[in-house]
Every structure is written in C-alpha cells, then in structure tokens.
C-alpha cells in the first residue's frame, strides 16, 4: 500500500530526505550518524529501501576496511612506533625551528598516507604544542598546519583516508574497476607538495592565538591543592564560604567545599560553612605546605582549620576525542572530583568559553576541558576515557618491544595491496588480527580505537545511496544537468563536479558527500561519453580537501579548540589552500586519467 503511493514520487521524496539531512548536518541538530540513521529509518518506513537493502549494505567492504585500519593505526600508537619522531621534532624545534617545522609537516603527510588521519593528528597535537613552546610561538601557528598536512597526506594512497576507501567502494558498486592502492599517488604527491609550500609561504595568515597550553610550561602549571576541615569552634562557621578572607588571599583560592563527601562546587557562592565541612584550596606557595613528619600539614592557627592533607596538582588542557568515553555526557553526570579527584575549571567549544554551562553542556568531539588535579589522577582519567592531554605528549606505557611487529604489519598490508595479492579489505582484516594476536594492541583498546560513529555514518549513507538507486534519482539528476554540460568541455564538467563536492564537504561530512556525489559523477561522465574515472578521482580529492571551515573534516574540528582558533582563522588560509588544490587537480587529473 505505502509502496504504491510513494512510487510516483520516489525521486522527489529521496531528494527531500537528502536535502533535510544535509541541513541537519550543517545545523548540527544531532550528531551526523544519528541524523543519517533517522533518514534511513524514513526511507525504510516509506518502503523506498527494504530491510534486505540495509542488511546488504553491511557486507560492503568499506566499513570493514576502515575499522581494520583503525586497529592497525592504534597498534602503531600503542607500541610507541612514532615516539622517536615526536622526541626528535620537539628537541630540534628550538635549534632549527624552520627546518623542523617543514620536516614535521612532511613527516605527518607521509604517515597520514598509510594510517588514519584522526589518531595521527591526536598524537601530533601535544607534540605541536611542545614544539611551539620550544620555538616560543603560539601553538595556533602549528596546529592548523598539522591538520592540513594530515588531510593532504591522506590523498596519496587509497588507504590514506576513509573517504578514498568509500569512494572506491561506491565506484565498484557502479561497475568500475577498483582503484590500485597507489593509483592516486602521483596526483596526491603533487597536491601534498603544493599544499605544504602554501603553508610555509603563507605562515603570516596563521593566527597568533593564546591558549592555556602554550602559556604554561609543565613547571608553571604546577600548583598544590590543600584540604582542611572546619572545626567546631572555628569563627568561619555560619559564614558564606566566599566571604571568608582566609580563603581569598593572594596565595590561596577556594575551589570547592565538601560536605559528607558531596561537592558543593556548583553552588559555591551560596554555601554557608558548617562544622565538619572540608574546604579545598588551591595554592602555589610551597611554604604553606611544609609537612610534619607524619605527613600532615601546618596551617596557621589563625585560620581555625585542621589540615587533612595536600597534594601536588597541575592545570592541564584535555581534548575530547572522537572515541572518548564521555561523549554526550555532562560534567555533572560524570562527577570527576569524586571518581578521580580532578576539578573541571573551564569548557571551551569552538572558540567559546561555556562558563555558564560548564556542568550541564553535553560534551562533544573537539571540546577542550581545563582541568586541575594530581598528575597521576589526571593520567588515570585520560586513559580511562581515551582523552587527549593537549599540554604534553602521552605518558601511557608503550609496548615498545612490539613496535617492529606493528610497523611490519602495516608494511605487509601496503605491499600486499600493491602487489595485488588480495583485496585491501582482506589484507586489512588479516593485519588487524595479527596486531591483536601479537598484543601490539589489546582487544579493549582496539574496540575503543575504532571510531564507531564514522562507521555508523558510512553504513547509513550507503543505505541512502541504495535508496537513490531504487528510485532512479541519479539518472534523474544526470538527465537534468547533462544537456547543459554537453555543450561544454569535459574539463569544465570535471570542475563543476569538483567544486560541488568541495563546497558540500565544507558544510557536511565528507563521507556523506562521497556517497551522494560519486554515483552522480559517474552517471554524468557516462552521459557525456567520457571515462568516469577522472570524475571519481575529482570527488575523492574534493571530498578530502576540506580546508575552509573547522567543521568539514574531523581533524580540523580537533585542532579548532585546541589551538584557540576563531572560525575565520580557517577561512583565511583555507581559501588559499582550496584554490591551489583545485588548480593542481584540474591540471593533473586529465593528464593522469585522460577523458
């Protein structure tokens, strides 16, 4: 019944669903994978796609390949395979800043060609912050280049980014021959070189923003937290905590009041002190913390407090990663003080301090939290929830002895794909299984390393792609635009496809663009009587070339808050990057893949 009613309007309905979905992506009504899942649900209800269609998508090789590459990339991180490089660039930043900066970008681009961009950028953010400190420049001078170099490097091989794998999968479904792992390398190499030259020559377009991480050296961030109980005879009893002079000296700051183990921090301005309350003070004056032999503290008697203890604490900046275990949760719900003994100080999102929503804002990818606590407590929090300490490189215990195995597995996967021994999906699965068996990465770490949000989005978008096929939407779109482009050169049509893909990528997720635009590009090329391969390559590169905004590509989102950037900081240098990559692509694509 529903199918018969919907059938005459199928193409129109799917167009409307995709349009609304893209608006949802751009306006961020919900996370991309949730919005895409809702769109698939609508198509299921309207019988435009069947349950078998959706289940059939699960057999697509792209999500499997991407998940396996996430695991292999995690093995490189967990074994410390890149640790020596991080130490080298940090050490060389002070002596040879320009040369080190250039080699840093080149190395990121090369590494990004063979491992997932997101974990690589997460690993390099604290390295860039440490480099900036050594070079005595703002971290904002380095973090955008880190993201851009990873994006550029991802275009050099088929496994360099999930977008490449996804476009190849969609093209194969349309009947095209699969891409070789290094088929796009000549174009990707030229694009990467051109992009790095732009970043070096246009360094003046990079902003000089101040971040907590760039301001504070590890020594400067060190403070002490003192806990003291209010005694029965204390004159502070009955007073508002904020009004007590002893808590508001130059060498002390009140950060919390504990009553029966419950934190009153959210209502600190209204707290009236009672006997037994524990006040938590921040101080950097070591003399205040002179210890008795048994480990207690000497607090001046005039303060009428009995010291319970003190511990060294640090103020650090923590980045919410795509695989963080606290995504979507609030600080109020997490109760980090009770669980870890750390205190959230500020929450930054896209250049904005969410001071009034510190406790209630659901945490999102790219948010940065300013936290205070003992270094061991902070490290435990970071490890438990897979967060990123922006202030310094990871202190996790590396399995260094297994690093050669992780590197060998990656080389074997690349070599096997280059020699055509097996499809990339099969090689990637074997590689992932090998690093798990060799314990380069533990099973729970591997599960945490996979960005399930991206995989969910890809599966949902592939199902929407099936819906486009079922209603003939691709043919309808091609039939509408092909007559107008037939009078022009194939190069002009190629430019239109590239610009459309690039523009959409800046406002919606690149994987969604890949699934929607690739079949249209293939259909357009076929109707024009030319080889569709150059058009598919144009989509592949344009969907990855997201430099203009901080929301078009996940690595841009990660460095957005970490670098203290404003939205238009990306626009200034990103516009130049987009133009250069477009020109290089339009010149090189027809040379490598003739029409």
From TrEMBL:
Domain RCK C-terminal, by residue range, is 213-297, 303-387
Where found? Membrane
UniProt keyword annotations, A-Z: Membrane, Repeat, Transmembrane, Transmembrane helix, Transport
Q: Which GO terms describe its molecular function?
A: monoatomic cation transmembrane transporter activity
Example GO CC term: the record gives: plasma membrane
One GO biological process term is: potassium ion transport
User: How does this protein lie in the membrane?
Assistant: Multi-pass membrane protein
In terms of Pfam families, this protein maps to: CitMHS (PF03600), TrkA_C (PF02080)
- SUPFAM superfamilies named among the record's database cross-references: TrkA C-terminal domain-like
Residue ranges of the TM segments: 36-55, 62-81, 101-130, 142-167, 187-206, 405-438, 450-468, 480-500, 512-530, 535-553, 573-593
Can you name this protein?
Di-and tricarboxylate transporter
